[in-house]
Amino acid sequence: MTMTRHPSVAARPRTRRSMNPWKAVTYAVLVVGVVVWLLPFVWMLLGSVKTPGEVLQRPPTWWPHHFTLENFRTWLTELNFGQFFTNSMVVALVTVLGNILFCSMVGYALAKLEFRGKKILFGLVMVTLMVPGIVTFIPLFVIVSKLGLVNSYLALILPFLTQPIGVFLMRQFMSAIPDPLLEAARIDGAGELRIFFRIVLPLCGPPIATLGILTFLSSWNNFLWPLVAAQSEKMYTLPVALSLYSTGENATNYGLLLAGSVLIITPIVLLFVFLQRHFVQGIATTGLK
Amino acid sequence: MTVAADHTRGPVRSRRRRQALIAWMFALPFVLVFGAFMVVPLVSSFGMSFTDLSAKDIPNPLAVNFVGLDQYAQLFGDTRFLNALKVTGLFVVMGIPTTVAFALVLALALSSGITKFRSAFRVGFYAPVVTSIVAVSVVWRYLLQDDGLVNTALGWVGIDGPAWLSSTTWALPALTGMAVWRHVGTLMVIFIAGLQGIPDDVQEAAKVDGAGPFRRLWSITLPLLKPTILLGVVLISVSFLQFFEEAFVMTQGGPLDSTRSVAYYTYEKFGIGQYGLASAASYVLFAAIALFSLLQFRLLRSQD
């Protein structure tokens, strides 16, 4: 598209002249916008390496006068960051694996197998796509309490182990896999399990990547449920730990709190920068299909 | 089930049956987990909202009393709940149009044929979307302090900024600002995808007919983008209506309940053990989300 447009632009100087001021304005808007957009992150990084006095200084200093890693040291040694990080990571990884496996299995059944109740099952998935967490969390808490699971990894993982959005994503993608491919395998005597693992799953790289990223992201950032289900400090996930410190006696210890934010955000930003194509694809497919 | 199928050939029927069995085996893990942790809670939450269930009934949840619509009556008689509805409504009404406007400008700018740094811009504007609300709420609370960066910057242009988070007037707009910042990236990506779907020849034809850039934007691009915009609005309104975490970290619902949303009210009633009332409040929110989505999908369909 752009390839064919360039020569015509060059051939018509009039268009080109009128394009330039527009382009300048566009770039100006974008540059100013992106600087403002990223400023909170820059401010967070700068604040996290300031001393308790300097971080509250008025007017604020830009570059830290006394660079210190004390805030990070406090998280790592006194505040049990290792435990919170491990909790967040274990919960996120198990949730990701569970969603990838279970959502593709049911996605396969919905896309490629015939069975009674298929329409009802898919309807149920679609209906629950938009159910907000706040609606289910009270009965969920009662169930989890009854099962004696409060304060366990299971309590943090089970409610998110299979998400309707994942089923939807996998089913949509698998529907596009040609039936003759599967029929051929069936005629050759392959069982459904074998077809699923050997033929279907290997073709599902893109939706699996999308689902994995979306799930990791929502698990890592999840707040309301872990806040309720993790009641002792040893089960806190990172956002729960940060929120409780930020409303307790450390409420104005901003150096420490900003360092906590840096520690939560950094893994996600790294993931995002390396896999940004998939992130954007994920939003576009879940949003537009 | 098999009455009609009895007359068909045996092998076909048994093969069908076998396939159905296999299909349910594939669906089994999902059905179990989804049933226990989504469908059952969804239904029981609805049921609970008609009972006086409280935290002390947990050992024996089936022994609670059915109270009909009492919880809903109590909700709508509670000025704090009505205030929570207003707060959530204002948050949505201020936040969504602002987010759409920003995202639209950015999507148009990024689709206007610029090539340099295009993906860098996209990454930059999208970055807030992927970050933890709790973490960015901490950062924004710091930015919005009385003598924080925002007020310092306003001071440079001679504006004496308010004490954002401790003002009943400014706390909600401040939280809305942060929500806009966090959601623009999502809509921007969706709008860019939508703009790519508008065929070039329509634009070219209008250009040949002498339509200027603003005319083309108004009469061609925007009308063709309308379904995408509506879809984007539905998507982010679900998230805006659940407004809770920002307030939890930044204002604890204050000052004077000026940022206490419906979700926050629900959480608070849950915290003091009034499960019946909290469930009723959550269903009011759910109904609002469902209605909002339905309404917008209707609008969407009437476009086609």
From TrEMBL, chain A:
Q: Which InterPro entries match?
A: MetI-like, MetI-like_sf
Q: Which domain of life is it from?
A: Bacteria
> Which residues belong to any copy of the ABC transmembrane type-1 domain?
85-275
Keyword list, A-Z: Cell membrane, Membrane, Transmembrane, Transmembrane helix, Transport
Q: Where are the transmembrane segments?
A: 24-46, 84-108, 120-144, 150-174, 195-217, 254-275
The way it spans or sits in the membrane comes to:
Multi-pass membrane protein
Q: Indicate where this protein resides in the cell.
A: Cell membrane
Q: Which family does it belong to?
A: Belongs to the binding-protein-dependent transport system permease family.
The name this protein carries in UniProt is: Sugar ABC transporter permease
TrEMBL record, chain B:
What membrane topology is given? Multi-pass membrane protein
Q: Please give the start and end residues of each transmembrane region.
A: 21-43, 90-111, 123-143, 224-244, 275-295
Name all ABC transmembrane type-1 domain ranges: 85-296
Q: Where is it predominantly found?
A: membrane
What family does the entry list?
Belongs to the binding-protein-dependent transport system permease family.
Per UniProt, subcellular location reads as: Cell membrane
For whether the record's keyword set contains GTP-binding, the answer is no
Q: Which InterPro entries match?
A: ABC_transporter_permease, MetI-like, MetI-like_sf
Say which domain of life the source belongs to. Answer: Bacteria
Please identify the protein, giving its name as recorded.
Sugar ABC transporter permease
Keywords assigned by UniProt, alphabetized: Cell membrane, Membrane, Transmembrane, Transmembrane helix, Transport
Q: Which Pfam families match?
A: BPD_transp_1
